[in-house]
Structure formats: C-alpha cells, structure tokens
Amino acid sequence: xxxxxxxxxxxxxxxxxxxxxxxxxxxxxxxxxxxxxxxxxxxxxxxxxxxxxxxxxxxxxxxxxxxxxxxxxxxxxxxxxxxxxxxxxxxxxxxxxxxxxxxxxxxxxxxxxxxxxxxxxxxxxxxxxxxxxxxxxxxxxxxxxxxxxxxxxxxxxxxxxxxxxxxxxxxxxxxxxxxxxxxxxxxxxxxxxxxxxxxxxxxxxxxxxxxxxxxxxxxxxxxxxxxxxxxxxxxxxxxxxxxxxxxxxxxxxxxxxxxxxxxxxxxxxxxxxxxxxxxxxxxxxxxxxxxxxxxxxxxxxxxxxxxxxxxxxxxxxxxxxxxxxxxxxxxxxxxxxxxxxxxxxxxxxxxxxxxxxxxxxxxxxxxxxxxxxxxxxxxxxxxxxxxxxxxxxxxxxxxxxxxxxxxxxxxxxxxxxxxxxxxxxxxxxxxxxxxxxxxxxxxxxxxxxxxxxxxxxxxxxxxxxxxxxxxxxxxxxxxxxxxxxxxx
Length: 488
What we know:
The chain has 21 helices and no strands. It is mainly alpha-helical and 488 residues long. It has two domains: 22-223, no CATH class; 227-485, no CATH class. α13 packs antiparallel against α15. The protein is globular and about 65 Å long. This is Membrane protein involved in the export of O-antigen and teichoic acid. Its main location: membrane.
C-alpha cells in the first residue's frame, strides 16, 4: 500500500511541474499585454473572448475528458482504449470545428453585437474558436499521456503550447500592433501547431473506427459534469461581461487586470489542491482522520486569510508595478476580494471531504449550481449600482454559499469537527477588518500602517478568541505530523 501512495504523491508532484510552470509563465508575460492593449475596452474584450472560448470548450468536450480518465482503465484491452480515445477526440474537435465554421459565416454580425460595434473584430471569434480546436485536441491527447504516465511528454508539451502561444501572441501584439486579434493569432498558430505534433506522436493510438456505443458511454459519463462546469463558468466569467455591457469598457478593463493579478494566488493554492485529494483519501481509514481533516481545514483558513491580509498591506506598489498603467490604478483595491474567493474555492474540497469519501459529489455540484444562480442575480442587481464592488462582493458571497452548503451536507454523511461556528465568526471578523483596510486605502488615510498593525493583531487574537484554535490544538498539529509518516 505504501508504494502506491508514494507513487501517487510522486506523480502528482511530477505533473504539477507543467501546471505551475504554465501559471508562472502566464503571470510573467501578462504585464506585456497590459502595457500594449491600451485601447479602451481591449483588456475587457480579451477577457470576454476568453470566456466565450471557455464555455465553447465545455460544450464541445461535454465531459468526455473526465470520462476518458475512467474508461482508460475500464476498457477491456488496448484496442478498446484506443476506440474510446479516438471517439473522444473526433467528437470534441468536430463539434468545435462546426462552431468555428458557424462563427466564420456569422462573424461580422456576431462581432457587431458582442463587441459593441467595434471595427476589426469580424474574424476574432472564428480565429479564437479555431484555436480552441487545437486546445481541445491537446487537452485530450495530453490527458491520454497522463493516464499512460508519460510524465515528461505531458510536461514538455503542456508548457510548450501555453508558453509558445503566449510568445507568438506577444510578437503580434508588440511588433505587429495587432491588439486583441494578435493574442488569438498567436493562440491559433501555437495551439494548432502543437496539436498536429501530438497527433503525429500518438498516431498509433488512433483507430479508424467511429463507435456510437463507445461515444455514448463517454457522453453518459461526462455530460452530468456539465452543470458544475457551467456553474463555475458563471461565477468566474459573467461578472466581467456584465461590467462590459451594463457599466463601461473602462470598468471591464480594470476588472480584467484585477482578475489576472488575483489569480496569482493560484501559484500558492495549486500545490495544496494537487496534494489534498490523494492525501485525504490515503488517510480516510485512520481513526483520527476526522481530527486531521478538521485541523487542516481550520489551519488553511487561518493561514490563507492572514497571507491575503499581509499581501493587501503592500498590494498597491506591487499592483502598479505589475499593471504599469495609470488608467487601471484603482484596481488594487479589489484584489483581496477575488483572492479570498479563490481561497474559499480551495476550502470547499476540505469542508466537503466526506462527500468525496462517500462518493456524493452530486451534492457539491448542486451547491455550485445554487451559488451560481445567486451570483448571477446578485451581479445583475449590484453591478449597475456599485460597479466593480458589486462583482467582487458577489464572488465572496457565492463561494461562502458553496462552503456552507458542502459543510452542512458533509456533516450528514461524514461528521468532522471543523468548529464551523468559530470558522464563520472568524470570517465575519476578517471581512470587517478587510473592509476597514480597503477604506483606509481608498481615503489615503494618514498612519495607515498603524491601522494595519491593529487589524493584524485583532485577526490573530480572533483565532483564539473564537476558539478556532487553542494552545492545546496547536500542540496537536505537531503531534499528528510524525504519525502521518507511520502505518496508514
């Protein structure tokens, strides 16, 4: 058993190389785009097009990538595995190609509606959708490589298509002055190029057989995942669209910049997400597993919130250096909202760990669906009045709904003492103090650092005042660590 668990962790770490490398590369290259997409609304239009390609990806893949993770091992032999793989790629890429053709035929009127009549965008959707065909092929083929445990091929080509596409896009944006179109020209060349190379490398894995039976298996397994993906899309994408259409292009630009810099917290949370699922499953049969889960959940909320608070103290100069544009200067005020939302999204896998153990993931999906509906309604009400404040506030509210939902249903299926009352009290204190920090920064109050020090001290005191942790429980954390290295 130990050797399988060790392999699981080592594989997770190996595959994380590409994930972290891609996110880091995107973070380092983003300031170049910020400094050259200076036209009114261009950042917003970049983000808007990305949201359209994301929903297109979900609709075309239809969960068949997740289904392949099951049927790769469930297939009776290598030939059947290849049939599943071939049908998944052809179906997904074919659907996306069909949408690309429709976008080409209707490109001009679509661009007129979507991009508020701006000129030069009649080919944007066809180019972006055709680039997505390449991305879908890459996603399927690299998934197949991952299941085959071809670690370095997965890492090399994952990074090649992301970094390569970005570098080509930079050429078009910086040297050809192609604006938003330049970004997607780069993606078109980079993603289709890598897709063709991967198809050639894996050519023996494709078989000349289209099977309705195998395709129906893939869709039947994967399609139920679509509501969760759509819910996540609503919560991460629709805010910027509502800002673009109902408020102004400038606000959409600022929000896009904030989204980009707030996403940097993923560089910190991604390693935990990769490690948590195998770790939590590997200890589920231990008698003290619920105690460990409780400690991890509470420790993560404390460590994450304090880290975001400390970052907020110095976010303005970091933001200004990263963005490099005076017209987007106020965006630093909103970064902590979206960062906290990302933290809550990570926490739902901890507070809902019992639902994962009991294989009741549909309850998690239902929670995201409810949160997405609340988010969408809230955005339509708040954004026209409060603009970006409405969007970022609804992000926090929506993810809090997810956390509360998964906790309630987790306790019915696999009780864990998270001291959830203390967690909610701690979060309420945290939100109150963070709003105060934001007010100090907005008003440019004198002696801001004095308030920062008081806020940090109060937040640390609240850890013990709410009984989220006691000195005894802190000692327990140290005592659990050596046990985790023992027999499981």
